Amino acid sequence: MGKTLVYPKGISNTANRYAKRVTYDLGPIHSIINAATHLDVAFVPGGDDPFPTIIPMIGQMGSYEFPSNGIDEPLDCYIHGYVSARMMNMARAAGDKGLPLCISATHVDGLVLSLSPFSHSYNYRSVVLHGYGVPVTDEDEKNYAMKLITDGVVAKRWDNSRTPPTAGEFQSTTILRVKIVAGSGKVRDGEVSDEKQDIDSMEVREKVWSGIVPVWQTLGEPVPSSTNMVKEVPAYLKEYVSKVTEENKKHAYAAMKLPAP
Amino acid sequence: MGKTLVYPKGISNTANRYAKRVTYDLGPIHSIINAATHLDVAFVPGGDDPFPTIIPMIGQMGSYEFPSNGIDEPLDCYIHGYVSARMMNMARAAGDKGLPLCISATHVDGLVLSLSPFSHSYNYRSVVLHGYGVPVTDEDEKNYAMKLITDGVVAKRWDNSRTPPTAGEFQSTTILRVKIVAGSGKVRDGEVSDEKQDIDSMEVREKVWSGIVPVWQTLGEPVPSSTNMVKEVPAYLKEYVSKVTEENKKHAYAAMKLPAP
Q: Is B129 left (phi over 0), alpha (psi -120 to 50) or beta?
């Protein structure tokens, strides 16, 4: 009991600066990914192109092989979105080994305004994962991943929308399963931090306001489409909208060690 | 008059899918970068490491060489934050040519919930830039960039905090100037989009709620630090907090062709 699973420290994920902010624990890392409205996914096209490329995508941690695995147990990252032809062609060409990818998620929880700009910071939660992406071809696994990702956008949405997919939808949807080999998370919270020289200067402190501006992502009142025929906003959607906003707000205030107002 | 400057289309930034959502215009691209609370910056470590790495940083578009350039004119991207030792060492080693970087910014403006999960989408504004990063060494340029970036976090903060920097602060701060060689933006807005077969099915439309959940980043009431001595939240900060929240909200509703409530 109480064993915490961690990602191994390797060359690509070992943080040196602000080491106390870093976590390698699977639980918090996977939670930060799953709470993000979008993920940034980077790949290296190679050839004549000297640049890595970042594509914003949506994704969720899950395990088709071990579907009962909890958030703090080994999981793959399933991603979907604008899978550029280049990324997909490279992932297919990479075969079983997969295409090396970097996946990141960042939540800004507050602007930390200290006396000197050089001590300014953010309260934030961020994650960087490294792994190998393989296109999902198995029908069952693709269905599993599509439900996982859809319910990551709005909980229970899969069962409350027109499913199952048609053959055309199924074929035109591309999903990558990313087998994670390294991961790390960084969390900054707590008080404004200042240099002693500034704290000791009444002149500075009488002039400069210091404190934190809490920041959170708000989900607003759902707006029906012009073709919508369902009169009331369904309960699962209402609940999701208020739950997510409350949780985001709670993170922003918890980072300041305060209850959300 | 009326000439719109655009980024050239190259191998690394030409979008093929959803081409009508894409812009190469400098103005909207730079605005999306400057409105982001954080940027994702990717580099390729190389050597034994097969993965690109993404680091969340803060940054702003600006031009030290041509400080009067407007938002729709050529600008560099100045970035700052947790510049990992690897990224910095590589940027230094790259010399005048600079280190190839990818910079991305994404704003989620709404969850677009259509009848079928496969037509689900987001309203969003995203940008991907490619460019060469060089550490800023010139003192004047570094001061320019530090003010630019600080005022990007909170407008007018530089002049309202303890400046100028001490020698120690100045030396320990690392800023990269990224010369942009390619850029593209994508903007998705407007109505829910559905397949004809779903729109034509009364059974589907009577069962599934369709519409958009607006999403925006909220800046909350500033919370003073335990050492703060300025009694009132200063006007520039109050104004910034409400202005940014209003603008974010306006984007979420404008994407639905609605005025913000």
A: beta
- Across the A:B interface, residue pairs with CB atoms under 8 Å apart total 322
| Position A73 in a domain | yes
Which residue in the set A49, A122, A209 is minimally distant from B233, CB to CB?
Answer: A209
What are B77-106's pLDDT values in tens digits?
Answer: 999 976 667 888 899 899 999 999 999 999
| In the block, residue with structure tokens 């390729």 | B44
pLDDT tens string B30-78: 999 999 999 999 999 988 899 999 999 999 999 999 999 999 999 999 9
Which CATH number do you get for residue A235? Answer: 2.30.110.10
User: Which residue from B49, B44, B224 is spatially nearest to B133, judged by alpha carbons?
Assistant: B44
Would you state the structure tokens that stand for residue A204, as one six-digit string?
A: 């500075």
The Cα–Cα gap between A224 and A160 comes to: 15
Is residue B75 within 8 A of residue B30, CB to CB? The reply is yes
Least Cα separation, residue B1 to chain A (angstroms): 34
How far is A69 from chain B, CA to nearest CA, in Å?
A: 25
Residues with Cβ within 8 Å of residue B163, at least 6 apart in sequence: A116, A117, B147
Residue type, A49: D
Mutate to test the interface with A, among B9, B86, B118 (most CBs of A within 10 A): B118
What ipTM does the predicted assembly reach? 0.95
> How many domains, chain B?
1
Does residue A8 lie in a domain region? Answer: no
Nearest to A233 among B154, B208, B209 (CB): B209
End-to-end CA distance of chain A: 36
Q: What is the extent of the structural domain holding B37? A: 19-256
Q: Please compute, for residue B145, the number of CA atoms within 13 A of its CA located in the half-sphere on the CB side.
A: 27
- Whether residues B169 and A55 touch (CB distance < 8 A) is answered with no
CB–CB of A223 and B42 under 8 A?
no
Which DSSP state fits B38? Answer: -
Report if residue A243 sits inside a domain.
yes
How far does B61 lie from chain A, in Å, by closest CA?
A: 18
Subunit contact B54:A160, Cβ cutoff 8 A: no
Give CA–CA dist A176/B218, Å, rounded: 32
pTM: 0.95
Q: How far is A188 from chain B (nearest CA, A)?
A: 12
A5 in a structural domain:
no
